């Protein structure tokens, strides 16, 4: 069974507080070309983020994507995995950026959102 790696869900404002830590960030990408190892996109709160990949991108992508990786300095992310929403049609354009930003704010103030108390 694969082990789930804990990561923080962030937007552009909270990315800066997670340098060196595993994160997940949603970006709106104009176009990332097939085979590229870096590209940029805007977070849900409008911050431009540069993504550097370990392996070249397998296929071009546009629209909303999720990047899982490690936050770096100066609004960069070392991407380990990219989740694209290719066949989602309207859903990629109607992504709820306000809702996602509220989620990031909520998670930043709730240190252990899934803590259920001591287990017996």
From TrEMBL:
One of its GO terms (molecular function) is damaged DNA binding. One of its GO terms (cellular component) is site of double-strand break. It comes from Anopheles culicifacies. One of its GO terms (biological process) is DNA replication. It comes from the Eukaryota. Belongs to the replication factor A protein 3 family. Keywords: Nucleus. It is found in: Nucleus. SUPFAM superfamilies: Nucleic acid-binding proteins. Gene3D superfamilies: Nucleic acid-binding proteins (2.40.50.140). The keyword Nucleus applies. It holds the Pfam family Rep_fac-A_3. Its main location: nucleus. This is Uncharacterized protein.
């Amino acid at each position: 069974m694969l082990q789930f790696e804990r990561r923080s869900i962030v937007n552009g404002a909270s990315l800066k507080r997670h340098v060196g830590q595993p994160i997940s960030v949603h970006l709106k990408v104009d176009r990332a070309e097939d085979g590229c190892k870096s590209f940029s996109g805007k977070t849900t709160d409008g911050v431009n983020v540069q993504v550097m990949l370990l392996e070249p991108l397998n296929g071009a992508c546009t629209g909303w994507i999720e990047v899982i990786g490690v936050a770096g300095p100066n609004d960069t992310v070392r991407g380990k995995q990219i989740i694209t929403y290719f066949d989602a049609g309207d859903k990629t354009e109607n992504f709820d950026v306000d809702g996602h930003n509220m989620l990031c704010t909520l998670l930043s103030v709730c240190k252990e959102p899934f803590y259920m108390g001591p287990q017996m």
